[in-house]
Amino acid sequence: MLKKVKLTDAEMKEFAEVFAYYDYGDEEIGMVPYYPGYPDRTSLVNYLIAMIKTANEYNGIYATSDSKEGILILTDTTHPYPGMTMLKMVWRMARALGFRNFSDIIKKFQAGGASLEKTYRDSKKQFVQIELLAVKKEYQGKGFMRPLVETAFEVADQGNLPVIVSTDAKLKKDKYEHIGMKLVNIRSLGENSFMYDLVREA
Questions:
Q1: Which residues pair with 185 in a beta bridge?
Q2: Which member of 8, 120, 124, 161 has the greatest number of CB atoms within 10 A?
Q3: CATH number of the domain at 9-200, please?
Q4: Are 7 and 55 in contact (CB under 8 A)?
């Protein structure tokens, strides 16, 4: 299992930008255009920093090595963030987008039907979720995604839990499938915008 690390402010911004400026190819647009200010992605970057910063404070970031080629943030329903930590994260994320825009984004995510996370929570099923996985540009395509995903598997195996992830990129979906996850649902959010729900069962 990969070890946990602390990120500097500059590293948090770098990983947020890697995630925000992902190249979806010609067939999809992802969720990016739904964030305020598009094509400028400042608000999306700040939104992602809010998530990363909270995980960083809670010692919840795994990295491929001390060089931090890639990072992983998980949630585990059997070991949830404290209530105040969650409130702080939501507050930061809402401020990054503006409270009305934050509400609109949540609604957009739900437009294509219930996510796997919601389905599991509604049925009181415990799980580990990949919240964010990012590899620095210079290390992409060099095998750094696999150890991050396999760390999620190891964390889940400790509690005999499934691992779930939702992604808005087919290319990422294909990589998750290659590493061992199974596509269980595709949600259409609008023209050329989809969410892919995947699971690796316990």
A1: 197
A2: 161
A3: 3.40.630.30
A4: no
pTM over 0.90: yes
Amino acid at 66: D
**Nearest alpha carbon to residue 146 among 128, 133, 161, 159:** 133
Strand order in the sheet with 163-167: 61-63, 70-76, 128-135, 163-167, 193-200, 182-190
Helix axes 83-97, 42-57, angle to 10 degrees: 170
Per-residue tens of pLDDT for the chain, all 202 residues: 999 999 999 999 999 999 999 999 888 999 999 999 999 999 999 999 999 999 999 999 999 999 999 999 999 999 999 999 999 999 999 999 999 999 999 888 887 899 999 999 999 999 999 999 999 999 999 999 999 999 999 999 999 999 999 999 999 999 999 999 999 999 998 888 999 999 999 9
> What is the C-alpha separation between 17 and 22, in angstroms, rounded?
8
Distance (Å, whole) CA 65 – CA 63: 5
Domains in the chain: boundaries: 9-200
Nearest to 45 by CA among 63, 28, 32: 32
Would you call the peptide bond into 39 cis, given omega within 30 degrees of 0 as the criterion? yes
Residue with the two structure tokens 């290659």: 178
Bridging pattern class, strands 70-76 and 61-63: antiparallel
